[in-house]
Design brief:
7 helices; 44% helix; 196 residues; three-stranded antiparallel β-sheet; alpha+beta; globular; 5 strands; single chain; two-stranded antiparallel ribbon
Length: 196
């Protein structure tokens, strides 16, 4: 697939309704994207296709639950996966995070390699669809917003119920998990309205 910098032109170059396989895991699970153009001109959806099963679209909720299960079942291994997620967040190609590929967990929804690839795409989806200019400023609820929820799961400070409730209602994670937003007035308003 590639780094965030190298995959963006591939995603932006897709025609509406064009589907592209981005990665195939050792187990044959395909990580795919399909350009939809629904939320914005560059909008796409992420898909997972397991051999013999129908394709489905994993969401940020699936990602958070999967990470929670992994952290809960083996916190030591999760630290390695979390470091790889940090690398991906910072633009690295998931392939260079192969130290996390071989990690196995007693509880999980997706293998670590599949998680890294579709997490990268979900982060880019956030960047494409939730960054816009308003009132002379650029409001950005891109990958930083999603990473805040990942950091919250990593912290172990809260139940998955609370984290997922915030995520599905588009309530922000606590500010300490999203340092990029600390100077954003709109983010401060959202945080104040949820009493952290």
């Amino acid at each position: 697939m590639g780094s965030m910098r190298s995959i963006v032109p591939v995603l932006k170059g897709l025609a509406v309704e064009e589907r592209k396989t981005i990665y195939v895991s050792r187990e044959g699970i395909e990580v795919v994207v399909t350009r939809t153009g629904k939320l914005g001109p560059q909008d796409f959806v992420v898909g997972l296709k397991s051999p013999g099963r129908n394709e489905f679209n994993p969401t940020h909720i699936r990602l958070l639950i999967d990470l929670f299960l992994k952290r809960h079942s083996d916190n030591w291994k999760f630290r390695h996966l979390f470091a790889a997620l940090d690398d991906v967040y910072n633009g690295a190609d998931p392939a260079v995070c192969d130290r996390a590929f071989g990690l196995s967990f007693p509880m999980f929804l997706d293998s670590c390699e599949v998680t890294l690839y579709y997490c990268q795409l979900l982060m880019l989806e956030q960047d494409f669809n939730y960054t816009w200019p308003r009132e002379g400023k650029t409001w950005k609820y891109g990958r930083e917003f999603l990473k805040g929820f990942i950091n919250w799961v990593e912290s172990g400070e809260e139940t998955i119920d609370k984290i997922v409730t915030n995520a599905v209602r588009n309530w922000p994670p606590p500010p300490r998990f999203v340092p990029e937003f600390l100077g954003n007035i709109q983010y401060a308003y959202l945080v104040d309205s949820h009493n952290y």
